[in-house]
């Protein structure tokens, strides 16, 4: 018998991040990535702005701009490098990256489009269950294809495409407690 869920989720309404320069953020998300800017707010008392971009399926990525926000701390509040280029670790409670779901049949086309628009991207990663967890080719074991890149504020973004349907065999690891390490 299926367990009743205590809440009905319909996706992510919005993820709110903080940017250094709202104009550059709009240029990147609206003009480079093509996400429609759907709502803008000037916060009371000239305390900043809050803008929302449609990232599909009714979900949004939103940004606050605060004139007195502390500077970013790469390697703590977010990864300092992209996967394949060094440590991808970030601190507890931080946001490591945003994976944007893109159609699998358009993945290679979108990868080229990012390059054509001047975005510095990683190689395509075909994530699988091998010891290195990545394949040079798309095989039956690949479960997601990914490419990573930074936005103007160093927020790590990923274009990701699922390539298989998951089943019970895909949940095969016990969670690790900090007390066990």
From TrEMBL:
It holds the Pfam family Glyoxalase. Keywords: Dioxygenase, Oxidoreductase. The keyword Membrane does not apply. GO terms for molecular function: dioxygenase activity. InterPro entries: Glyas_Bleomycin-R_OHBP_Dase, Glyas_Fos-R_dOase_dom, GlyoxalaseI/FosfomycinResist, VOC_core. The keyword Ligase does not apply. Residues 11-162 form the VOC domain. SUPFAM superfamilies: Glyoxalase/Bleomycin resistance protein/Dihydroxybiphenyl dioxygenase (SSF54593). This is Glyoxalase/bleomycin resistance protein/dioxygenase. It comes from Hyphomonas polymorpha PS728. The lineage of its organism: Bacteria, Pseudomonadati, Pseudomonadota, Alphaproteobacteria, Hyphomonadales.
């Amino acid at each position: 018998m299926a367990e009743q869920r205590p809440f009905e989720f319909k996706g992510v309404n919005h993820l709110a991040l903080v940017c250094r320069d709202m104009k550059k953020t709009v240029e990147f998300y609206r003009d480079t990535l093509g996400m429609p800017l759907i709502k803008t707010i000037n916060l009371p008392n000239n305390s900043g702005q809050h803008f929302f971009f449609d990232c599909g399926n009714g979900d949004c990525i939103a940004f606050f701009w605060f004139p007195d926000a502390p500077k970013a701390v790469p390697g703590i509040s977010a990864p300092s490098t992209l996967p394949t280029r060094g440590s991808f670790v970030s601190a507890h409670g931080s946001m490591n990256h945003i994976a944007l779901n893109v159609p699998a049949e358009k993945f290679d086309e979108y990868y080229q489009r990012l390059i054509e628009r001047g975005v510095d991207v990683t190689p395509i990663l075909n994530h699988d269950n091998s010891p290195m967890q990545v394949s040079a080719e798309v095989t039956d074991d690949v479960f997601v294809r990914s490419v990573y890149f930074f936005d103007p504020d160093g927020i790590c973004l990923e274009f990701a495409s699922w390539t298989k349907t998951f089943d019970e065999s895909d949940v095969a690891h016990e969670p690790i407690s900090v007390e066990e390490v």
